Structure formats: structure tokens, C-alpha cells
Amino acid sequence: MQSLSRVAHVAILACFSLMFITKGVSTLVSKNGLSNYSFPDKFMFGVATAAFQIEGAWNEDGKGESMWDTYLHKHPNFTVDHTNGDLATDSYHKYKQDIIMLQSLGVKYYRMSISWPRILPNGTDHYINKAGVRYYRKIFQELIKAKITPVVTLFHWDLPTALMDLGGWTNPKMVDYFEDYARVVFSLFGDMVKTWTTMNELHVHCYNGYDLNAFVPAMQSHGIGVYLCSHYMLLGHARAYHLYDKEFRPKQKGKIGLTLDVFYAEPKDSNNKEDVEAAERYLQMHLGLYAHPVYSKEGDYPALVRERIDNMSRTQGYPRSRLPVFTPEEVEMVRGTSDFFGINHYTTVLASASSMEPGWLVPSLDHDAGVKSEQDPKWPIPGAFWLAVYPPGLRKIVNWITNNYGTRVPIIITENGVCDSGGLNDYERVSYYNKYLYQLLLAMHEDGCRVEGYFAWTLMDDFEWSDGYTVKFGLFHVDFNHPERKRTPKLSALNYREILRTRRINFNYIKMPSYKYNNL
Ligand code: NOJ
């Protein structure tokens, strides 16, 4: 631990000598490469991780199995490199190193998640695993000692297998189970954790896992399970919010919200009305479906989404809509249940209208949306195929959220980042963070959007779901061949630390090897 601390600090100091001048960007950047705009002092800068992607120790100290454990053990070829999360970055044993890394970055906030089956091995609250409780209490204590505020996600996709066996989020009873779990967690950790996010990325979770077979549980209940999952997750979130609000907030005095996700959608041809409508439909089907019930004044699903899925269901011969219906009481229960708008954003697509594309199933969310999405060949793709770099997308999505839901609650970027194929000299990641954060400054200063926090994804290279360990998102490199899972800071870690220190983007801080990273 000590030696890691020294390594991290020495490497960071050594790399300060790498500061030279690069070309580029815009008139809002001064001659010395510094952005003219800055982030306010109280802006929450952090990094984010998730339990299943880093902890390992899948069966240690009484932990129950999550659906990802069980599924990957049964289907070892599911991930592209045939790996699983059994060891991951071994943060169950190395969390103290992780905290030293956080300190070396200078972050004041750390978004992490609790593994539900580590606390409740069978999913339900009749039995609590004390070793799991001790583990998280120690992390929170160490974080607070290091003056880092924990921001804690209750559910980042690692559902206890015992509950998946009951149908996972397609089962209405999950709403009760999630509330029970939330009660346990608030009671056990609410003295130390003051910012909660109930759930991570409802769209990705339900679409990849329940509509498609891209993520566990690989249910392929296309066009049906995907909306049951969305519906009961929204209700579960709302129940946890009210539980906290009534029973815990008065004493614990914290905040609680939700983390959604979206790729921004640009019309493929902005002069073509159908493309413009397709882009809006994409945003409504991917984000509005989850955000409107919670953040709009009137609540409930957006009219566009409701009508579209109702009509499709009718013409397809279904006796009722495949999108479940909230009762008026449920609309009220879900409305307004978030103290902030947590949004994960990575990339943008070009949208055009289409009634059928190769690969779409009928029914399915894609078919219901009727939007063909593609990437602009001009956008760089440094790692995974889906992540094309288009920095203005962040400014645009923050504006879209503001225009649709107002400024009652602040926006927090709960994840943003890029993957590459590895290495310490991660110029693409440096460039990505500089440019995306710069667009965020523009959204805040020029457009008046209320953005109060930003979390980089992610602290270190980790288990990237179906991509296994093949793509790297970390600010710190992890040597997965090393028995100690050795961590080393990348150039992007140094750059992020400098942004946090100065509250500005310094485009000259890391010397870029060529102009190719400055072409946006
Ligand atoms: C969002 C998810 O929350 C996170 O778990 C994942 O690793 C990143 N996207 C990158 O794909």
C-alpha cells in the first residue's frame, strides 16, 4: 500500500515535466492553452466504479452469488475473452490502495456501488451478511478519513441470483425486495453515506439484459420484458426514495437520486424533418421513458412513447400495451423522486427514421423506436465499437435535459469516459476528457445549464461486462497478469488531477504526439 502510494505520487510528479504546447481548440481558450471558463469551487469532481467490475472475491466471507457470477460460470464464452468477475481488480482486498489512488488524483467524491448479494446473500433481508457490512463500513470510514465523500449506488446490475431466479425485474415483487434492501443499506450505512443513487442506467440494464442478450440475464424478452424491467425498476426506485425521504432523511440529512444514461442523437440530415423527428424519438425512447416519470411536472411516461408502443402493440395483435400502465397513484408516487438528475453519457449517434433494419426483432425496443442509428465516420473510435468520440454531444444532451425538465434539480454527470486498447500513454483519453469537460463548461457558462458534478469513468481498468478485460476505461492501468493487480497512473490521471487542481482545462498540459487528437 505504502509503495503504491509512493509510485503513484512519484509518477505523477515525474510526468509534470511532460507539459508542452499543443495546437487547437477555440477562442474561448487563452494563448497558454487554458480554458477561459472554470468550474466553480463547489463543483463535485469525482471518479466512479461499480462493485461487480472491481471487487472480485465473488464467494468470500459469506457473499451470495449475483446473476453475473452464476451466468458467467455457466456460460464462460459469454464474454469476448471468456473471463468473469471472480477476481476483477481485487478491490475487496485492495480498497485501501484504491483510496490512495483517489487521493493522488485529488478527487473529493467517489461514486461506488454496494453489491446487493454481499449484504443480502439470498436477496431478501431475512439474513444479513455481517462480513459484507464490515467491508463497506471500513471503506466508508477510510474514505471519510481521506476527506473523500462517498456517493453510493444501491444497484449497479449485480442482482442476487436468488432474485433473478424469480424473474428479476420482470417480477412486480422486486419492488418490495428492493425497498427491503434499501432499508437495510440506509440503516447500516446512512450515518456515513449522505449521497445515494438508487439505480444505475435503467435503459442499458433493461435493453441489453432483458430485450437483447448482450448483458446478463440475456433474457431476450424483446419488446416485453424490457418494459416490465423498466416499469418495476422505476417503481422500485420511487419506493426507495420515499423510504429514505420519510424514515431516514430527517435524521441522516442526505440526498437521494437516480442515474440514467443516454447517447445523444443528432439528426442524420438536420434539414430532413423525418430525421429530426427520429433523433427526438430516439432520445424519448432511450431517456424520456425513464426521465419523464421522475422529472417532468406531470409525471408518467412521455406521450410520444406511450402512444407509439400502445399503437404498435395494438397492430401486432396484443390484447394490451406491451408498455405497462402506471395507476394515477403510481404516477404521483414516482413523480419528483430525485434530488438530482444523474446522467451517464459517452457517445452520440446519427439518427434517421426506419421501420425495419437488419437485426431488429419484432416486437422490440428498436422496432418500437423506429430509429436507425449510425456513427459519423469522422468521429474517432479509440476502443469499443460503440464509443465514437463527439464532445459536443455532452453539451447538447445537458441542454436537452434542461429544456425538457427544467432546473428544479441539478444535473450531475455520474459517468463519462472513453475506452482504448490499453497502455499508459493514453493520449486519446486525455483528449476526450479535455474536450468533453470543455463542452460541459460551455453548457454551464454559455447555456446556463445547472450542472453541479462530474464523475470520470473510471478509476482503473476493470471488468467491462461482455467485453471482459479487453477494453480499458481506467485513469489507472491495472496489470491483470500481475498477482497483485498492480495499479499505475496513466497520463489521463495526471491530466485529470490538474483539471481538478486548477478547475480549468489546460489543453497544453500533456503534450500530444500529433494533431490527430485535436481534430474536433
Ligand atoms: C456505464 C456503466 O454504468 C458502467 O458499468 C460501464 O462500465 C460503462 N458504462 C462503460 O461501458
Short summary:
With 520 residues, the chain is an alpha/beta fold.
Please explain how this structure is put together.
With 520 residues, this protein is an alpha/beta fold. Helix 8 packs parallel to helix 10, helix 9 packs antiparallel against helix 10 (225-252) and helix 15 packs parallel to helix 16 (427-445). The chain has helices spanning 2-15, 51-54, 67-74, 91-105, 116-119, 130-145, 161-164, 174-189, 202-211, 225-252, 273-295, 303-315, 328-334, 365-369, 392-405, 427-445, 491-502, and strands at residues 44-48, 109-113, 149-155, 195-200, 255-261, 264-267, 341-344, 348-353, 371-374, 411-416, 451-457, 476-478, 487-489. It has a single domain, classed as Alpha-Beta Barrel (TIM Barrel). Helix 16 links the parallel strand 10 and strand 11 (451-457). The model is unreliable at 1-25 (pLDDT under 50). 41% of the residues lie in helices and 13% in strands. The chain is globular, with a radius of gyration of 22 Å. The protein has 17 helices and 13 strands. The structure holds 1-deoxynojirimycin. 1-deoxynojirimycin is lined by residues 50, 53, 200-201, 344, 415, 457, 464, 473.
